[in-house]
Write a structure and sequence with these properties.
Elements lengths: L7 H7 L4 H7 L1 E5 L1 H9 L3 E6 L11 E4 L2 H7 L8 E6 L12 E6 L4 H13 L4 E4 L9 H7 L8 E3 L2 H10 L3 E5 L5 E2 L9 E6 L7 H6 L2 E4 L10 H11 L4
Parallel strand pairs: 2-3, 5-6, 5-10, 6-7, 8-10, 8-11, 9-11
Antiparallel strand pairs: 1-4, 2-4
Amino acid sequence: MIQSTKSERVKQLVKLKQKKYREQTKQFLAEGEHLVEEAIKQHLALEVFCLDGASVPAFDGVITEVSRPVLEKLTFSKTPQSMVALCKYHQRAFDMAEMRRVFLLDGLQDPGNIGTIIRTSLAMGFDGVILSEDSVDLYNDKLLRACQGANFYLPVISAKMTESIEQLQASGFKVFATALHEARPIQEIPTAEKMAFVMGNEGNGVKKETIKKCDGSIYIPISKAESLNVAIAAGMFAFQFRKS
């Protein structure tokens, strides 16, 4: 049992709260019973740290009991649940040739929005999500909680937007930017075999250089409101163009 928050083991684990250490080690912390269970199911969990008496899901790896102060040190929540898992990065293959529906997230900064879009993508049968290099880190604690494990099942990568669009188009995708200028309403866009949608930054939308690379622009007609939340809009696109 680890009781002291000053132990070397705890100090090393706490470093994973910072992006640079996560990227160096290709490891992250998954907090709470549900995320730990999903990480175990997908064989991502390397070790589980839990309070004495906690009911840990079936796990073949190492289970280490910790004191409550240690658990609080390892987690982000003010009132953490009873366990946290040390996990390895998710390395699911991103095969555009086999995909039919993809979201590209161009500069999104709200981890809650990104997590919601990833969960929606999984629910609506989308095949993958591409994050621009200036989007929030996939293993950000708030993003992980918003995903609720969806990113453990769905291929999600970080890549350059313009290069990703070119690669998708070479794989037969029609790529649409979500924008208002010179755009067509959602109901006028015919469903194609392979489609990808670029969702833009919460304040600035899709970058101009990204839009230029796309096959066209698309928008959702609305009334009595200036705009829709990007995650809500993504949900509408996912439902409208879900795979048959």
